[in-house]
Amino acid sequence: MRSIRAAATGAVMLSLALAASACGGGSSTGGGSNDSPKELTYWASNQGASIEIDKKVLQPELDKFEKQTGIKVKLEVVPWSDLLNRILTATTSGQGPDVLNIGNTWSASLQATGALLPWDAKTFDAIGGKDRFVDSALGSTGAEGQDPAAVPLYSMAYALYYNKQMFADAGIDGPPATWDELVAAGKKLTKDGKWGIGMEGSNPSENVHHAFVFAEQHGADFFTADGRADFANEGAVTAVKQYVDLMAKDKIIAPGNAEYAQNQSVSDFAKGRTGMLLWQSASANLTSQGMSEDAYGIAPVPVRSGSPGPGKQVNSMVAGINLAVFKNTDNLDGATEFVKFMTSDTEQKILNTAYGSIPPVKAAQQDTAFNSPANAVLKDTLATSAAALPQVPEESQFETAVGTAVKNLFADAAAGREVTTASVKAALTKAQQQMPTK
Amino acid sequence: MSPDTTMTATAPAAQAAPRKNTPGAAGGPRPRTGRIRRIGLPYLLLLPALLLELLVHLVPMVIGIVMSFKELTQFHIRDWGTAPWAGLDNYAVSVDFDAPVGRALLHSFGVTLAFTLLSVGLCWLIGTAAAVFMQDTFRGRGLLRALFLVPYALPVYAAVITWVFMFQHDNGLVNHVLHDQLGITDKPSFWLIGDNSFIALLTVSVWKGWPFAFLIVMAGLQNIPRELYEAAALDGAGMLQQVRRITLPSLRPVNQVLVLVLFLWTFNDFNTPYVLFGRTAPEAADLISVHIYQASFVTWNFGTGSAMSVLLLLFLLVVTGVYLALTSRGRRTAP
Amino acid sequence: MSPPRSPMAPPRSFLWSRRIFLTLLTGFVLLPVYVMVSSSLKPLADVTGAFRWLPTEVTFRPYVDIWSTVPLGRYFVNSLIVAGAATVCSVVIAVFSAYAVSRYEFRGKRVFTVTVLSTQMFPGILFLLPLFLIYVNIGNATGIALFGSRGGLILTYLTFSLPFSIWMLIGYFESIPRDLDEAATVDGCGPLGALFRVVVPAAVPGIVAVAVYAFMTAWGEVLFASVMTNDTTRTLAVGLQGYSTLNDVYWNQIMAASLVVSVPVVAGFLLLQRYLVAGLTAGAVK
Questions:
Q1: What sign does the dihedral A316-A317-A318-A322 (CA atoms) show?
Q2: B84 to each of A266, B69, B73, B77, C88, how far by Cα in Å?
Q3: Residue C29 has pLDDT above 50, yes or no
Q4: What band does A17 get if pLDDT is binned at 50, 70 and 90?
Q5: Which chain C positions have a beta carbon within 8 Å of A56's beta carbon?
Q6: For residue C247, what pLDDT band results from cuts at 50, 70 and 90?
Q7: Which positions ≥6 away from A116 have C-beta within 8 Å?
Q8: Which of C112, C122, C245, C249 would you mutate first to test chain A, the one with the most A CBs within 10 A?
Q9: Residue C106 above 50 pLDDT?
Q10: Which residue in chain C has the smallest CA separation from B271?
């Protein structure tokens, strides 16, 4: 044992010395510079059906940008599974892209790290001013009272997709407007190996989005006004239980959906295995899976009663992608120029059409391309009845904690175990206790 | 692949036995010619390995330890050099077993320990049994040996992803066989979520790990002189007695190393649970490596994550130390 | 069928239990391999619907598609470069170290061996982020790009396999009679001459065993590859995730790609396995 101790001591001493010298440089904390004005690195998120498709969509636009400005953009499409990790490592090391896409719900969390360039009035003016953007989209760009950490790029909203043929066969007149109607319709659809609706039970983000909307409809929030986690309040518990009960009690979701995390529910819907789907901007996705636009209808996500609107009638989160500039960029002007290009009316039209999303830029939204019935529903939802997820620094942890709690509840439901108010409350309490204490 | 070539290839092994007669490495008097070169050379030879170990293992570990004393949350990760010192806070949180974070860590530790003991035990058992059964030549032995090594040779992700495919609830082979074909379960089970995930994880781990035990034990068996068995057989010892009286005792030193290495690798295994379950493992299969990964990368608290890793390292140090002390004492008292 | 029974032959009960045990074990081992092979020959509908033992029709389409769904070719080249270079360097460095330890007495020898071996205990997650920071800092200070480059990954992987390799080779070298290299030294070879002319040729099985181990380590690692690579340097371990797209999980392509990336390692492993056993016999297991 003596030799092990000797070895350990020796190694530690030597390493300490090296560590001190290796990391004395530390990560750079400076603002941006313009040291390399002719080049930009851009991390795009995976928006299309695959990374290769994304490259095909984006590259021509980047070429256009290079022609206009002489700045070459090196594109990397980062898969969702890696994106947050890559941003985190970039943040800790100061070595990252110049411009990057972030999920808009991460805005406040990433804002708190200080790694992203704040968009103050002056910077906004450089890209044409803040009022070019839709308000709801701006509501998901960072904590209230601070300069936004990013600029909206694509907007999306949840809608109810339903299979017209299956509805007709089951004798259902139109899309359900309330949850009671949805459950009733779901029960009619659930037979012969087909199911009422599909879910992604093992995908924490999807779970959290739905939990949030259900909670809003019950007048509940997951954070108190002063930003403290409050996951296990009565409204939240009722909301989460109502969501999980679609599988546990109403039995209109196939138990197998509890392990879905890779968009299998979209594929099930496209193949006619489920009659309904709650999804954000699924059209492009469904088309590429061979489901024709006539085969399905799009309706607003149901509410408890009445019609969707502000307040308790919220029926979607403000989903979308924001574009951010990494503070350590060595081409600040170029990066700003690139954001201006990507949020210009022309590019907004091209990109949002390609991805089936809605432009967060007012002028671009007016374009006829976004007036199809499908887009009308999404646009309307975004404008009137969508709410942003909590804009607090702990948002990212909240997604993981609550999303995982709901995942475990679905696992219980799928295994035939009872899901009770008490068990939901216990799961949410545990999730809350995992949050950093202030 | 015939037995003869194997024997030729293991020729050095035969010479290994009388090795103890040659001047030993430990402390034997050495000729003092070219003293300076002799002194400098070994260090020179070790230098590359030393530098790499420092760069990739030791210095990062020390930095990791330093991090465990810092408050490295999202507010400070951008410049961790100036992040405030947290003292022992990260450790206090990790080992406060009345609070959720500590309790979750303890749970994860328990799961990992149970998983590791079962996995190592099964790997060793299957590996040893297979090696003993295949000690004698029989038709097809070479082919079988090659087949048995396939799980070990497959890249982890390729193997584990195949198991994911097989463990799916709706379309997986496992449920197809257990439920549809054999009717053992009255409804399809979940393997990748819920309590069964522990069984799934164990199955994959054993499937992947036992060939290594097989390989090592097989190599160990080749060092046992045949005459021992022949003598035992003449004494009238049966197969089982031969295994108990000759095979297992001769394998002791091999097993000592094998079990330790398997234990460390299994305990620290990240690839298998990560590919099997993704970044949030089900509670029943919440292995500590993924748990710590989640504590650091998913909740953005690298300080607590590092503290947990350090605790894990300390635990493994103690286990290894105790294990080595116990087994080498056993070895010394053995005849 | 039954072999000629000598007086030394094992009893029937042994033969039967051996037959049963080995049959069951073969089934367990081959099941996933069968699934991998059969599913890789199925059309997509077969792998997204209920499981079937046989394809409705055998198609080689997945083997064509895998190269275009994700840039598998590039990942393949990256993995080959990274694993190949890591293996070569790891073997060379391990040979030097093992030679020093097995042939010389020097201060700090035990410290060295114990320290190197103890790194096997380190949880990878503990030094993932620090290592990343070090690479970035080295990059900032010297301009040598280690993060995101193949070089960084090579350094990392070769060090991962070093401890076990050194330890195995020490054992192997010690089994080679010392008289041989001392004779060579007397004949006028320097110590290095003795190493390369006598010790290394005699230790080929051990060296092959170490090389196989190092290659496998580098070829299969997931965690560090996911953080330390980018689009152009991504390795197979991470790249294979690309088959689960937003649309569908292309299980038939995943299986085909898994098979394709496994073939080089498995083939190499099986070809070299007798060296491996021999190397282990003399080295690790002495």
A1: negative
A2: 46, 9, 10, 11, 43
A3: yes
A4: very low
A5: none
A6: low
A7: A102, A110, A149, A150, A324, A325, A326, A327
A8: C245
A9: yes
A10: C222
Q: Which of A402, A428, A406 is nearest to A258 (CA)?
A: A406
**Amino acid identity, residue A318?**
V
CATH code for the domain of C99: 1.10.3720.10
pLDDT at residue B116, rounded to an integer: 97
Q: Is residue A16 part of a domain?
A: no
Which residues in chain C touch residue A93, judged by CB atoms under 8 angstroms apart?
Answer: 132-133, 136, 147
Query: Neighbours of A (≥3 Cβ pairs closer than 8 A)?
Result: B, C
ipTM: 0.88
* Residue C122 contacts B where some CB pair is shorter than 8 Å: yes
Neighbours of chain B (3+ CB pairs under 8 A): A, C
pLDDT reported for residue A16? 46
Q: How far is CA A356 from the centre of its chain?
A: 15
CB contact under 8 A, C71 and A264: no
Q: Is C27 within the bounds of a domain?
A: no
CATH number of residue A302's parent domain? 3.40.190.10
Q: How large is the average pLDDT for residues B26-38?
A: 49
Indicate whether A109 and A200 sit together in one domain: no
pLDDT for B34 equals: 54
| A75 in a structural domain | yes
Q: What is the pTM of this model?
A: 0.87
Range of the domain at C131: 69-282
Is C241 within 8 Å of chain A by CB? yes
Task: For residues C85-97, give the mean pLDDT.
Answer: 95
pLDDT-derived band at C246, boundaries 50, 70, 90: low
pLDDT digits (tens, 9 = 90+) for B95-108: 888 887 888 899 99
Give B105-333's CATH code, choosing from 3.50.50.60, 1.10.3720.10, 3.40.50.620, 1.10.760.10.
1.10.3720.10
Number of domains in chain A: 2
State which residue of chain A sits closest to C227, comparing Cα positions.
A86
In this complex, is the C-beta atom of B275 within 8 Å of any C-beta atom belonging to chain C?
A: yes
User: In which domain, by residue range, is A181 found?
Assistant: 158-317+390-433
> Are C248 and A51 in contact (CB < 8 Å)?
no
Contact A283, A378 (CB under 8 A): no
Q: A357 CB contacts (<8 Å, ≥6 apart)?
A: A47, A154, A155, A156, A281, A320, A321
Q: What letter represents residue B128's amino acid? A: T
Q: How close A13 comes to chain B (CA, Å)?
A: 9
